[in-house]
Amino acid sequence: MTESDPRTADLPAAVTDDQTGTVRSEAVTTPQLIVSPVTEAAADIGVIGLAVMGENLILNMASRGLTVAAFNRTISKVDDFVAGRAQGLSILGADDLPTFVSLLKSPRKVMLMVKAGPAVDAFIDMLSPLLDSGDIIIDGGNTHFPDTVRREKALAEQDILFVGAGVSGGEEGALTGPSIMPGGNPDAWPALKPIFQDIAAQVGGQPCCDWVGEGGAGHFVKMVHNGIEYADMQMIAEAYSLLSGVLGLSAPEIGAIFEDWNKGELDSYLTQITAEILKKTCGDTGQPMVDVILDTAGQKGTGKWTSVTALDVGAPANTIAEAVFARILSSLKDQRVEASKVLRGPDDAGEKPDRDAFVEQVRQALYASKICSYAQGFQMMELAAAEYGWKLDFGSIAQMWRGGCIIRAAFLDKIKAAFDGNAALPNLLLDGYFTGAIGTSQMAWRQVVAAAALRGVWTPAFSSALAYYDGYRSERLSANILQAQRDYFGAHTYERVDKPRGEFFHTNWTGRGGSTSSSTYNA
Ligand code: ATR
């Protein structure tokens, strides 16, 4: 920036970068006038945050005929964007927040596409004095839903309508049509609906975006989406591992199998990209790319949030949690290398199964496991809705995930149909289609899990999904033993099979304890 830069001239000298939300980058050496000459409020919406998602979302909005105001903490990115990808489009760059706000039509709609956490609070603090009653702030980042609950409440007191919108689809989705899951202050929805439903992915003539619910519901549903994504990815990795470990197939051979699977029940974005990934060769070594990639997986925390929240609301989302633990275990690479020299697996792996038969069994096991992880995700949303007072429409959520997002899959049509047919369905597994699908595939699934156990192939998600299925379908579980143990050592009481629910009994198991039972019974 130079003194003659028209954008710096209006900034009070004493104002710090933190107060303006502006970072002056050394990289800008040839300043250009980037602020539009438009003086009246012309923009339909404003977006703050010119990282990958923000930029692509703005371009998507502009491509639908919207006029978009753009701002970023580091002003040089506004320069670059306006002079680059945004050139010639209905995108107005702003070099400070007051200018940005002045460009917006009323009610003003400001979408934050900044890093989740303190950056969102910082921009809310800077924006709210510049906004009027009825204006709208949307957080489109990967925010943890309790933060959205807090921000929505605080801004409602200032008559500013806050929306937390989960946006999924990565770079390409943001540009061509993401899945958008908005929730928060419902008064904001009429103004946002035409914009969001227009820029979202469309499947079957329907947008992959609808109002989710109040408070943190939108970010909650996006979080569960990410948890399911963890499980989907882990299960695909396990299928690869079985085909490679048991049948000894090469990566390109397995890629061809995934390509084939993508034509049927497993048709999904993740199946498709896995087929492409497995066929890719490393330019340096000539080996399959996957064979040169280190086997440790990173994570950004949304799977962990889903798992912790599942525990908080009492949802048995064990496959989703298992997928998070799987990444954690993978990250202990050095320990695993050492352990592999000491800890033995089975000596006799048995005969190699018939190739085609085993491939088909793995396909069925993957589908059955996938059904269970979605069942867990939807069951978790149902329990959370009761806990947090949200009215979630699960058919509509399935439609939102049908396109645009990472877990988009053809079988979400079946999930939508299940919940459209019975909005109060307590578990996806109880819908006729899914009961039938899992019934058909269960023997193949069991054989695959058994083969993996016998051969020592690591399949935590397949196994935990099967455990969920067997637990959920059991009329009588072994929890009678747990409850007896709890009553034995802690006088926690139990209910009886031959008495009405809600009556609690205590046994003096040893003859030494008294007759006093614990006052809290936690079923
Ligand atoms: P991605 O992962 O796609 O790169 P991100 O890290 O989630 O994106 O978000 C990056 C955006 O958040 C950028 O617009 C960034 O602004 P800068 O370009 O100035 O870095 C913005 N951002 C990150 N931390 C911020 C903060 N503390 N205050 C304001 N904006 C911030």
Summarize the structure.
By secondary structure, the protein is an alpha/beta fold. 50% of the residues lie in helices and 7% in strands.
Could you explain the architecture of this structure?
By secondary structure, the chain is α/β, with parallel strands linked by helices. Helix content is 50%, strand content 7%. The protein has 22 helices and 10 strands. Strands 3-2-1-4-5-6-7-10 form an 8-stranded mixed β-sheet, with helices on both faces. Helix 10 (217-245) crosses helix 14, helix 17 (355-388) packs across helix 20 and helix 18 (394-400) packs antiparallel against helix 19. The radius of gyration is 27 Å and the shape is globular. It starts with 5 loop residues before the first helix and ends in a 33-residue tail after the last helix. Mean pLDDT is 92; it is low at 1-36. Residues 23, 49-53, 72-74, 77, 114-115, 118-119, 122 line the site of 2'-monophosphoadenosine-5'-diphosphate. 2'-monophosphoadenosine-5'-diphosphate is lined by residues 23, 49-53, 72-74, 77, 114-115, 118-119, 122.
